[in-house]
Amino acid sequence: MCSNDFICFYDWIECRLIRRIDVNVKNVYWADSGDLVAIVSDSSFYVLKYNRDVVSSYFDSGSSVDEQGVEDAFELLHEVNDRARTGIWVGDCFIYTNSSWRLNYCVGGEVTTLFHLDRPMYLLGYLANQSRVYLIDKDFNVMGYTLLLSLIEYKTLVMRGDLDRANQILPTIPPEQFNSVARFLESRGMLEDALEVATDPDYKFDLAIQLGRLEIAKEIATKAQSESKWKQLGELAMSSGQFELAETCLLHGMDLSGLLLFYSSIGDAQGILKLVSLAKEQGKNNVAFLCLFMLGKLEECIQLLIDSNRIPEAALMARSYLPSKVSEIVTIWRDDLNKVNKKAAESLADPEEYPNLFDDWEVSLSLEAETGKNRCNYPPAELYPIYAQKSTTNLLENFKSMQIDENKDPTENGQHVHEEIAGNEENHGQEAVVEEDSSSSNGVVFVSKADEEELGAQDENTSPVKLEVKDESTLPEELEAKDENTSPS
Predict the structure, then answer these.
(1) pTM score, two decimals?
(2) In the predicted model, is pLDDT for residue 95 greater than 80?
(3) Which part of the chain is the COPA/B TPR domain (predicted)?
């Protein structure tokens, strides 16, 4: 008995209420076994299992039945959000037509579309000996569609957990249906069995990736020669620690970004150098630039920017890393900018023409010459913690603030202070008067004003010299040989 709001199931023999279910019911379909029932509503249908033994035990116990019936009489197996217009049961398979004019069947909660109908049709029945399901339209035209009984039996046995019998039926299923079987097995969480049954390469590749079966996936990718498959396999191989396979996959898939991450992570300088050529061939100048920059090949970085018509960026990079190249690039920039705006081109300053506009220009050139010696030396990755501490070092400031020691006391004109003082003594026959600041713990030594003027006469651009020494033992020998009675001026 049913209404728009509920349905009641009764025992036919004694008319006892078995269960009341509150649902909007449009139709009810019982399986031939009497254990499964499909309750169809306006927007979905429900597949329930009737627990016959539970109901019998409840009635045999003599317990009273309330208005809701036996609580565990039915077990909800599946809810399918599809409106079934007509339906029949074949074993544990529910075949139905829906409001979208499709012929579907449902096994284990998985819905498979058999055919797309061109008009509304209604199910008549299923002939097992012909493996065909028959439908009729409103004009009484009868149509038959193939639905393999072996396929239904196989899925039914899998649902019941009888895998041995299911495997015996599998060879009777046509190979063109194997992918359908594999998808059914995948929906049941049986990925290994689905991989063995599947025949479609793309689907089989996806299953192999899910299971981590990299060798099978590699075979499929080799045959397909698909970049997307190689990239997907390369990512999985890298996460699994199979670096050789990962490199092979990334190379076949031309995954330049992945290769950059891979080579830089393992510290493979040769691999990064090889990646430069690949990136240039593929037109991936951004990857090529990063590779060259990590290798310390600054000249090639700048040339790549010029070749890519990024001349302003090349000039700015040269100003930061290769100041000796700035004049050359400014000339190229002017020639290129002349084609667009001559006034703007003339406003570009060349450090060779206007060195006063570039702060610490001479120091930058000296620093470039000093640091360029070790630029392309690649220390082992195990020394990274040592070099990581130097990442925030300001080389320019350090170079400007270098302390003068007894072996090398560089000044702006590249000479030694004690050599200048000795030279002044020989040329002018005058003694350099030295004053030591007694209040300084570092022993600061000043050159007298007379000698300062003589030094200034040699080089007008040379500023008065201030020499700092750690102790008296570091004084030049010429100063130690001075008359002990010489008083400070």
Answers:
(1) 0.56
(2) yes
(3) 154-334
